[in-house]
Amino acid sequence: MREAAFVKQNKAKWIAFEKAITLNSKINPDQLADDYIQLTNDLAYAQTYYPDSKTLQYLNSLASQAHQKIYKNKKESKNRLVSFWKDEFPLFFYQHHRMLFYSFLLFAVATAIGVISAVNDDSFVRLILGDSYVNETINNIEKGDPTAIYKSGSEIGTFLGITINNIRVAFLAYAFGVITSVGTAYVLFSNGVMLGAFFTFFYNRDLLFEASKNIWLHGTIEISVIVIAGCAGMVMGNSILFPKTYSRKVSFLKGAKDGLKIVVSTIPFFIIAGFIEGFITRYSNMPVWLALTIIFLSLILIIYYYIIYPIILHKTNAKKLYTT
């Protein structure tokens, strides 16, 4: 895009934003925060295509003013990692909530397909889960311990193996976004179908509650974070399909960076899920109330950190921008 066209397309937006931060205009705080994100995107574009222009100087100055107004009273954390997970990432992730919803919706539809397929065709479970797993689980059911498979291996070995595998799956869901969102959709779809077939297998044997009580101990975080990793892949994939005002290359690089940030955020949660599976899930005889408590606390943790907390931070920063 020629610089003149770029300026013409965005000039009114920049002027309105400049007035808002210099004159404290009464503009919706959420809109101000969204405008700030758009401004930084425009700045990145100008840095790439108009490196020696007055447009870049203007956007740099405007972004600096806005940043100072938002963060002038904020103390920087000495620990960069803490700052990333506590402030930077949740605030950043707010803009990707819609993509998270699409990722969840795709996974839910795939799970439903897995359930329907397994209900109507008993051989479908073997096709998806494999004969070895199904036969071993049937033997465990006959012995009176449906989830005994989670008791095999050492606690530390299981913890490390499961954690590494889950992180691998998450990065795979992200990496498949390089062939557009279709690649990530395939990973989400296959995992969703597998989940649906898995629980239908126990349902057909009247063991759904018994199995769910144990498997969701670690599965609540594990499955949720796979959906989030799918969101990361779709962010990168959509940057290729829908570059907007950017060139496809610039859009892809930005999408890849944003997606990587999302998938990296999931690592601590996969470690928690791996710990639960390695050290807690194997105790299938624990009280029902304790199992349900762990499951619901895990669900609350995911929902709060990835949905509620980003909304709170977004509104807080928007108010700072509005009132400063």
From TrEMBL:
This is Stage II sporulation protein M. Keywords: Membrane, Transmembrane, Transmembrane helix. It comes from the Bacteria. The chain crosses the membrane at residues 99-119, 156-176, 183-203, 215-241, 262-280, 286-307.
